């Protein structure tokens, strides 16, 4: 009996340790170490025909001949959750050759995409080699089809981080607020991830530094970006089609606002977020003010009938919830969707957003069509930036069918 009690007590202690360890890990976040996805050097050259896409090294600062070198490096952060909050960032590089003592080397956020071709200089690589197709050069983002807006790279005037680099060895740019902001922006929008430019001391000749690239044969010398993040948001991967914007294969991208609402009357709003649905009607939303729980999903758009999920959906903090309205009418409350070209879609035409598609909406469309209104306006029901008869036809058909919003609010 005594042994059993001791074992039971040990089990409770062990369980408490596991719980505390889990809570600690959640609070501290997750850490990933990323190798660079591309790196290159911009060699100052009036012809813009020199590069080093596949070499073992990349360079920064000024040579003894007075020519500038600027390193480029970027990391793939697409596997970090979209709703993650970045809390810490550090970049570690190995500097393998220098022709000067301590010099400041800064990271600058790059504003244009650039390439890494197969050019590979021999020897110490300080002079580069003939650029290959797709290489970044002093003049080109991609040799030789696209130019930098500004020769020598288009990058921020603000330093993301700067440290003194002296003797051969490892150097780490560590977790400045701007570095964190840069990486957060890349996680939020991976299509805008162009990495950093290494800007060395260009004030005088003989300041150049050589760093090792992802191609360097010594694995431990290759670049590493260390990112720590937390993912404490409720998040939703939403798929929804807007009737007027859908042609059967693509939807014109537009912004919707999504609310999470309590599952019982009066269905109070818990949190909201906006997202631009892509050409397939998909978008990811983060709700930082919502806790794990059950919520209705309410979707609103500038000229469609507001649409709710059929039932409250279960959300878990840190786990992406998937909800696809397009697969069946029963995905919407009241089955309130229309089948259009293979996808169940939100009814278009509620121009005045009063919850009903009727003559007041068609009148607004007719007025704007008569005045040849164009642009991003609510009366443009099919998203082509022109208000005309095609918009009136969509709204008119739905008005004839007495389309109104179906929500839990209507049934209480």
Kindly describe this structure.
The chain has 412 residues and is α+β, with helices and mostly antiparallel strands. The protein folds into two domains: 30-230, no CATH class; 234-411, Immunoglobulin-like, CATH 2.60.40.4130. Helix content is 15%, strand content 34%. The protein has four helices and 25 strands. It has helices spanning 2-28, 177-188, 359-370, 389-400; strands at 30-43, 50-51, 57-62, 68-75, 85-98, 103-109, 129-130, 140-142, 146-147, 161-165, 169-174, 196-199, 209-212, 224-230, 234-239, 241-242, 254-261, 269-277, 282-287, 293-300, 307-308, 313-315, 320-324, 338-340, 343-346. The protein has a six-stranded antiparallel β-barrel with strand order 1-4-3-13-5-14. The N and C termini lie far apart (58 Å). Residues 1-28 have low confidence and may be disordered.
TL;DR of this structure?
This protein is α+β, with helices and mostly antiparallel strands and 412 residues long. It has helices at 2-28, 177-188, 359-370, 389-400; strands at 30-43, 50-51, 57-62, 68-75, 85-98, 103-109, 129-130, 140-142, 146-147, 161-165, 169-174, 196-199, 209-212, 224-230, 234-239, 241-242, 254-261, 269-277, 282-287, 293-300, 307-308, 313-315, 320-324, 338-340, 343-346.
